Amino acid sequence: MSREELAAATNYSSATIKSMEQGVRMPTPRLLDQADVLFEANGKLSAAKNYLRREKFPARAQDFMDREAEVISLWW
User: Which one of 9, 27, 38, 58 has the minimum C-beta count within 10 Å?
Assistant: First the structure.
């Protein structure tokens, strides 16, 4: 199925589907449910909803946040 066909079947734009495929945007639970039915995945795509969660901090800040958790005090 092409990106455009998936977009039409799920009522998303093809640009939105593209950004989900490329990891720019997280797939929505609704998309996962609809794709599960379309591709006859028997619940495997719907089960991915359990793993959808945004990181609390962006990737570029992860190292800083790890250090921040270890800090007791900071002297300037």
Answer: 58
Rounded to two decimals, what is the model's pTM?
0.66
Q: Which two tokens stand for residue 15?
A: 């640009």
Tokens standing for 68?
A: 């921040």
Residue 26's region, left for phi above 0, alpha for psi from -120 to 50, else beta, is beta
CA end-to-end distance (rounded Å), the chain: 58
The predicted-structure confidence for 24-66, as pLDDT tens digits, reads as follows 898 999 999 999 999 999 999 999 988 887 777 777 888 888 8
Cα separation of 6 and 4, whole Å? 5
Please tell me whether residue 51 adopts helix, strand or coil conformation: helix
User: Which pair of tokens denotes residue 64?
Assistant: 């800083």
Crossing angle of helices 3-10/14-21, nearest 10°? 110
